[in-house]
Design goal:
Length: about 230
């Protein structure tokens, strides 16, 4: 059964991708792994900053973003306790392996003149918080053990969210799905909320998987690999 098992990359919009790269490489210590034209999107730059071999923090910069003004409480929360528009990222938490590593990272960040709050013990993890460029609320967190659902599914909050005992059991143990090797047909796109495609890409909704792949696949890196020697 195919399941998502982690975050491959989280893409955040920016009007100044160089400032984001400067902050996350020099202040946080992440490595720049990719910087290239975003596939199929005119005049749009994509950057990947390495967290580990399979996980990156990414940024997207397109010209129109220079004209979109951030709005506190709508586009960004401003703090880990601030409100945000539904669907927007309230904050992003990046994993650190240990509390000692958390303190070492705090020293690195503070040495660059950035105010950092924490670590704070949340029970399931210890966290510290700061603001990144363009109002991104950043958390760095370290967990000594996996989250124990028996301890962290608060009955009061479960009830407040309208979840009954049968639903909670389903959420804790999702139904098994038998792999069909990609044979499930594409549903009618009108039956569920879908991607908001620009007019020039609306034709994708009626294309087959093979047609979409033929149009949008970009498997070749932009820089030729150097010959070993």
């Amino acid at each position: 059964m195919g399941l998502a098992n982690g975050v491959h990359h989280l893409a955040i919009g920016t009007r100044d991708i160089k400032a984001q790269i400067e902050f996350f490489t020099q202040v946080v210590g992440m490595e720049l792994a990719a910087l290239y034209w975003m596939h199929g999107v005119p005049q749009t730059v994509h950057a990947f900053l390495r967290l580990n071999d399979t996980c990156s923090l990414a940024f997207v910069q397109m010209p129109v973003m220079r004209e979109i003004e951030p709005q506190l409480g709508v586009s960004h929360a401003g703090s880990p306790a601030g409100p945000i528009a539904p669907g927007a990222m309230q904050h992003v938490a990046l994993n650190v392996d240990s509390e000692a590593a958390l303190l070492a990272l705090r020293d690195r960040i503070r040495s660059h003149g950035h105010w950092v709050m924490g670590p704070i013990d949340h029970g399931m993890c210890k966290s510290m918080y700061l603001a990144g460029p363009e109002g991104i609320v950043l958390e760095f967190a370290s967990s000594a053990a996996p989250i124990d659902a028996d301890e962290w599914l608060d009955p009061e909050v479960v009830a407040l969210c309208g979840i009954d005992e049968t639903e909670l059991a389903r959420y804790r143990s999702p139904a098994w799905f038998a792999d069909r090797a990609g044979a499930v047909p594409q549903p009618d796109p009108a039956t569920r909320p879908g991607l908001h495609l620009p007019p020039q890409m609306e034709a994708l909704r009626s294309m087959t998987d093979a047609e979409i792949a033929a149009l949008l696949d970009f498997p070749t890196p932009p820089v030729p690999r150097r010959a070993a020697g």
